[in-house]
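Hello forum,

I keep getting stuck at the same step: I have a sequence, I want structure tokens, and every attempt I make locally crashes halfway through. Rather than fight my setup again tonight, could one of you with a working pipeline run this one for me? It's a single chain of 426 residues.
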Amino acid sequence: MKNTTERIAILDGVRAYAILIIMGFHLWQQSWLQNLFPYDLLQPFGIQDFSLTWLPRTGYMFVDVLLLLSGFCLFLPYARQMTDPLAPAPDRPGLYFKKRAARILPCYYLCLLVYLIFFVRPAQYANLSGYWQDIFSHFTLTHTFWPESYLWTKFPTTLWTIAIEAQFYLLFPLLARLFRRFPLPCWAGLSLLAELYIMLFAQQPDGGADAFHINQLPAFLGVYANGMLAAVLWCHLHAQNHRMQKRAPLAATLLCAISFITIICMLRDGLDRASVAQRWQVDFRFLFSAVACVFILSLGRAYRAVQWLFANRATAFTALISYNLYIWHQPILLQSKAWRFPAYPDAPDGAFAWPQSANGEPWHFAWQVQYTVFFWIAAFLLAALATYFVEKPLARFLLQAAPKSTGSSGKKRLQTYLTVLHRSKK
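Reply #2:
Ran it on my machine without issues. Output:
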């Protein structure tokens, strides 16, 4: 029997590209560096204007892809058992929570500690209670519950995603049990609940969106549900591997290309509505994640040359350090600018969002390039150090008392298989 615990390499690539695009979005917010592609090279072909700036400017949508992957990977052990009774059993709740804590908490708390020591001061808050509320809510991963600690926090604002993930982790064992027994009804229920929440709380009558409610956990339930259902479909598709026809890679590659183009069109559409970008985000969140699921499922059946773009050493390494890339990239952006590294002149009177609002000065483009190069080097270096010297050692320490295996023994697994086979014959 094929090993049903093997890692899905293409997901590393999807995760890696998603985190890089998110980082590019935050970099663009701080530098306003526009398209660097030498579009003059395309003018002989009749292309007068070519820009890739739309990609970083819509990078916020790829946070949804990361959450989608979370739902997919968390439910994958359950989905594997749904198609193969001999597959290893999912972790018991105790070990599950221990693994989740070991995965996200060490580097998250390290980031909070660094900010608390060096950057967060009581004088930055209107009163002392606001200072302590910001600290308490972040350390308890509840900072998305209050606007003061979510929208106006002195800690990195990107940490709101870690809170959403932690809140979903608490619900997941119960959701997984229900989803395993009733996949389609649970998928429909979670998706409808998300859309109902968005309609009642995130959408505004004037066509805008409520900044506080657009990124709360209920608004992402449809994204998580799509990821969980995609895990079920993935296992069903790969369980039929021996029955797949030779034309399957061609069809999958075409579907992969179509879904990829659809994603680009959706992002461009969202950019065209930049004045109401957050409203577009919540209105199309479910559809965007669904198209991303189609892309992932078809990519898993595409030609190996296409898969290699997502499953190679570079994407594997980027995915390995992706959690720390996410945690530390915004502090690097903000603090390097605050420390004027690379250096830039003082802001003139009336300047807005300095220095990115500068335009036409000889130093400006040079600063943008230097700032961009420094950011990528520093982000990867710091993320690698945090992964290998903090995340991995502390995860091993926290898990050293955990049982090595919670799966069934060979005899018990065989008995389970025979029981399922007997029931199917009735």
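Residues 9-120+155-425 form one domain. If your local run keeps crashing, start a new thread with the error log.
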